[in-house]
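Schema walkthrough. Field components (list of strings):
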Amino acid sequence: MILILSLAVAVLFGAGAYLLLKHDLLRVIAGVVLIGNAANLFIMSAALTRGAAPLYPLEDPRTTSDPLVQAMTLTAIVISFGVSALLLGLIYLVYVAHLSVDMEQLSSAEEEQAGVDDELAAAALMPVDGDEDEAVAIAMSEHSE
Amino acid sequence: MMLLALAIPWFGGIVVALLDGRKRRTGLVAIAVLAASFIASIVNGIAIYRHGAQEMVAGGWEAGVGITLRLDTLGVAFTVLSLGVLLAALAFEVANGVQTRVFPALVLLMATGLTGLFLTGDAFNFYVFFEISMIAAYVMTSYGGQPRQLRASFIFAVVNLIGSVLFVIGIAAVYHITGRLDMAGIRDQMPLVSTSPAILTATIIFVAFSIKLGLFPFHFWLPPVYTGTTPAVAAILSGALANIGTYGILRFGGDLFPRELARGGNVLLILGSLSIVYGALQAISRGSAGEVLAYSAIGQVGYILIAIGIGGRAGFVAAILYAIINSLNKTALFFAMNLRGWIVSAAFAIGAFSVAGVPPALGFFAKLALFRLGANERDWWVVALVFIGGAMSFIYMFQLYGWRFLKPADGDETPTPLVAQLITGAVALALVALGVWPEPLLALSQHAASVLPGVAP
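Field assembly_structure (string):
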């Protein structure tokens, strides 16, 4: 039983980690959900050493599994559910802003922003002789094209 | 009183979430609620000072069954610090004009999470409060709603979720090897656990906190997030939320896993030194104010880690002192980053002096504590590192000061609200005032460190 569970945790975690490395943000979220579920299974397996299900009336307390981990797992499931909903909402906003959920397009937007920042900083460092505003304006307009 | 400190921001947060946060009135209500919980935490602190640490079990359960809440100096010091930073940031943002409906409620809910996390005596409950404050932080990073903030928020949420998952795996592992979830029980059981599972569990938990803290090999998410968000949110992330990482490493390392911490001390020293050098070099080479401060945050965390790595009483005192001072520094600097005016300029200069460790700013005492620590332990390279790191932070802070303030203001910049300038000034003034009269803060960190039983004689 322990072996099966640990294999299941390993497969879930591995699949989640694989999806995390994808470009499509929806897959990234699927990966986060899978990894969260791997953690839930891991919590469950942390107390599966004694056997019988902890249902009342208890037959023999010594052979009954620990019910506490199930309460913990339930809490963790609720939290990961809430977080997945939040992430999906966030992705929707990202989609509205960029019309894309592809990581590569987002990072090219990031580089463009960094380019604007650098040019603004460079413009700010130029000797102050009245051209400064112009330089900033040039830096801005180059990127708006 | 202990429950009150937790209940005020919690229920206040729920009520404020129903109101429109963009209205000034709602902002003022949120500030009042946060101020009340700040005062409640200070009252708790005074109670500890008079009567010693207190414990209670929530919901009237027997001890060992219910969730324990524990009030000690370490927890209260971090609570007061984090609530103070949140209060300043909220007031700052209300003065500038809140842009989204939920922002004041988010600050209150994060205050709930942080207060609960610093007060709880139960490892799983720690995780729950940790998630409460992190979820508030995920939403908060997207504050502003520009594409840039959304990207930052997404990176932040995904990376820190992995950190949270690692942490909950660590907690499950602790439960498996000790059979306990209350911290007192874990502390009793840990010495009986054999070495390799204990080391493995401690490592997982350490990695989880390092991700929050933005330590060197786990820092990759930090710069885009800090540069992407607005100054108030960046101040909250580095001044209040990063305290989770410091407190977590101190509490779990110093209190629950002292044996594993002593064994891993050298790893902490190496990671800390790498963080300092890497953060400072990157900060010197960066162009925008946000990036310089973000890399500086990575470097400053390294000093805290070095102090914890050296360990012992003096090490923990230095770590607590450094953490408190660092979060005040970062708050002042992030506030001053995008503003104009002589108050802000002075505040930024004070913050910069404090980061570099120049008296009379408070940062001097942080550097002094580390310097003494290195000299006492005869770790001369720590002394050298403090000097070199200090010199490099001097360079990047004043490079930044030169760009930001030593040139005439552009005409088109929006005028800064005076209240926001005054709040920035007040944080900087606190840095100087505590730097001139540091005894209370020194005594506080001494007292907080004495809570940790891992303190070796």
